[in-house]
Amino acid sequence: MVEETRSKLIRAARKAFAEKGYTAASMDDLTAEAGLTRGALYHNFGDKKGLLQAVIDQIDGEMLVRMRAARDEANTLWLGFLAEGIAYIEMALEPEIQRIMLFDGPAVLGDPSRWPNQNACLQTTAQTIEALIIDGTAKPVDAEAAARLVNGAALNAALWIAASGDPRATHDKAVGALRQLVSGLHRADGE
Predict the structure, then answer these.
(1) Model pLDDT for residues 37-68, shown as the tens digit of each residue
(2) Contact 180/150 with Cβ under 8 angstroms?
(3) Residue 24, SS3?
(4) Closest listed residue to residue 27, CA positions, set 38, 18, 11
(5) What three-state secondary structure class fits 27?
(6) How far apart are the C-alpha atoms of 88 and 110, rounded to whole Å?
(7) So which residues are the signal peptide here (predicted)?
(8) Which residues pair with 12 in a beta bridge?
(9) CA-wise closest residue to 182 among 139, 144, 122, 123
(10) Does residue 94 sit in helix, strand or coil?
């Protein structure tokens, strides 16, 4: 029952936040949409901010699945590493992700690089870079430092795309720059 209540609230909030934005989404409207009361919202999430965090966690999980799928479709670990970063940047073109993850999330919850889900993403990127170093594909570098820089570049590219007057053109620039940036990690034969 608790999980069903949480799911209903998250579903209603996600729809309201995507359509109206966090500020304009009324707690009364979204709880009515879910067929629940404000008390259910407070009991499960503490407040509207807690509900936003739950919506972001859900979307982030979905984004991670999509990024891993892009990675797994690649022919090599290096190409998978690159595909994962590009997939993240491409998702910044989606209106729901723009509004909830890139506009409202930072405005309400603060710096996205400090969100709890970023630690898992950072660890995954660092592990991939370490594997690339071990197999000789990447130059020897501190894997955590490189992961922080690559993840920071992808996050800032996504924020840039979301705020752009021409998101598609900005996306193309960001992907090209990301390719160049990470190519500095790639070890050419004989290095």
Answers:
(1) 899 999 999 999 999 999 999 999 899 899 99
(2) no
(3) coil
(4) 38
(5) helix
(6) 20
(7) none
(8) none
(9) 139
(10) coil
Residue type, 102: L
Q: Is 22 helix (H, G, I), strand (E, B) or coil?
A: coil
Q: Are 105 and 54 in contact (CB under 8 A)?
A: no
CB under 8 Å to 43, separation ≥6 — which residues?
A: none
pTM: 0.89
Q: What share of the chain is helix, strand, coil (3-state, %, to 5)?
A: 80, 0, 20
Q: Is 189 helix (H, G, I), strand (E, B) or coil?
A: coil
Residues 169 and 183: beta-carbon distance below 8 Å: no
State yes or no: pLDDT of 188 exceeds 80.
Answer: no
Name beta bridge partners: 138. Answer: 186
Which among 88, 173, 99, 73 is positioned nearest to 124, based on CA atoms? 88
C-alpha span between 182 and 107 (Å, rounded) = 29
